[in-house]
C-alpha cells in the first residue's frame, strides 16, 4: 500500500473552526442518512391513494433503498479506500439529496422507487465516516468519535419517525422530501467545508466484475428475504431467487479468491477476528430491528384487541424517541468501556443488555411506561453493540481497507435487519385474531417475536465472547508512518480539539 501523502496544514481561524466541526458534521450526515431511511414509513398507508399505485408497489419505496444500500455500501466503501473517502462520501450524500429532490417533484410510483434507490447510496456514509475518523484521529481520541458515529443510525431512526409523521400530518407529503433535500444539500456543503480528504489509499484497479457479482447475488438474496411473505416462501420466484443467490454468490466467492485486487478481501474476512465480527453484526442487526418494528405495531394496535393502545404514528414516534436520546448519551460510555475492557467485551455486554430488554418486553407489554422502558433498554444495548463493531474492525484490518471492511460489516447488519423483518412478519401472520372483522396480531405473537429477538441477541453475545482479542494494528509501524504524516497535518490536531 502506498504511503499516505501529507496534507498541507490549514491556517487561520476559519481552518480551526472547520477542523473542530469535522466530527459533528460527520455525525450530522449519519443521522440524516438514518432519517432518510425512516421518513417514508408514516407515508406507506396513504401512498396507494396518493400515487394511485397498489400496496405491493408502494412497499418498494422501502425495498428499493434497502437493496441499493446493501449493494452500494461495500462497493462505495472499497471505492473510498481506493479513490478517497471524502470524495466518495460527497458522491453518496449527493445521490441521497438528488433522490429527495426527485421524490419531491413527482407522484409517479415508478420514479419514486427509482429515486429511493438513489437514496440508498447514503448507507455508505457511516463506514466512510468511520474510516475518515480512523485516518484523522489518534487512537486515544478515536473510540468516542467512532462510537458516536455508530450511534447515529439509531439516533436518526428515532428522530426521523416522529418528525416525518408531523410533516405528513400537517403538510403536503412532498414537503417532507423538500426538507430532506435541503438538509442533504446542507450536508454536502458542510462535508466540502469541514471534512478533510484522507491521505490513506489502497492503490490498484477497481474490481468491476466483483462489484457486479456481489450486486447480483445480494439483490437475489434480499429480494427473496424481503418479498417471501408477499410472494409465498414456497413460490417458484422465491425458491428461484434463493437458488440464484447461492449460485451467484458462490461464483463471486471463487472469483474474489482469485482476484489480485478483490472488491472484498475474503482472506481477511476468514480471520476469526473479522469474520466473527461480521457474524455478530448480522445477529445484532436482527435483534436491533425487531425493537422498533414490533414496538410500533404493538402500540398502534386497536384498544379492542385487549392489549393495544391505539396510538397515532406521531405518538408512536414519541414512544421511540427516548431510545434515540439514550443512544446519544450512551455512545461515550460505550467508548470508555471499550478502552478499559476491549470492544469485544462491549459488544457482548451490549448484546446481553438487548436480551434483557426483550425479557422486560415479554414480562409486560401492556403498560405504556413498561413498553417504553423495555424499548429504551434495547436501544441502550444497541448503542453498546453498534459502537463496538466498528472498533473491532478497526483493530483487525489495515488502514487501507477500513472503509471496505466496515462497509461489509454494515452490509451484514442490513441483511440481519432484512431477515428480522421477514421473521417478525412470519411470526405475526401466524398469530392473529379478528378484531372488528380485521385480522390483528395477538399479544402472544408479539411476545414470541420479542422472545426470538432476545434469543438472537444472546447468540450475538456468545459469538462476541469467542472473538479473539488482539492489539490494534495501528499500534505498529503503520501508526508510526501516519504519525509522521500527522506532523505536517494540523488537521488532526484540530479534529482532536472537537472530539
Number of helices: 21
Please describe the biggest sheet, giving its number of strands, its sense, and whether it closes into a barrel. Answer: 2 strands, antiparallel
Count the E strands. 2
The coarse overall form would be globular
Average predicted confidence as pLDDT: 84
> In which range does the helix fraction lie?
over 70%
Structural class: mainly alpha
How are the strands of the largest sheet arranged? 1-2
Report the oligomer.
single chain
Rg (CA only): 22 Å
User: What is the distance, rounded to the nearest whole angstrom, between the alpha carbons of the first and last residues?
Assistant: 28 Å
Structure description:
Helix 5 packs parallel to helix 7, helix 5 runs antiparallel to helix 11 (208-231) and helix 6 (85-105) runs antiparallel to helix 7 (109-119). Strand 1 and strand 2 form a beta hairpin. The radius of gyration is 22 Å and the shape is globular. 78% of the residues lie in helices and 2% in strands. A two-stranded antiparallel sheet has the order 1-2. Residues 1-13 and 472-499 have low confidence and may be disordered. The chain is built from 21 helices and two strands. The protein is mostly helical and 499 residues long. The chain has helices at 13-20, 22-38, 47-51, 55-58, 60-83, 85-105, 109-119, 125-136, 139-170, 173-194, 208-231, 236-258, 266-269, 272-300, 313-341, 343-363, 368-396, 402-429, 443-466, 477-487, 490-498, and strands at 432-435, 438-441.
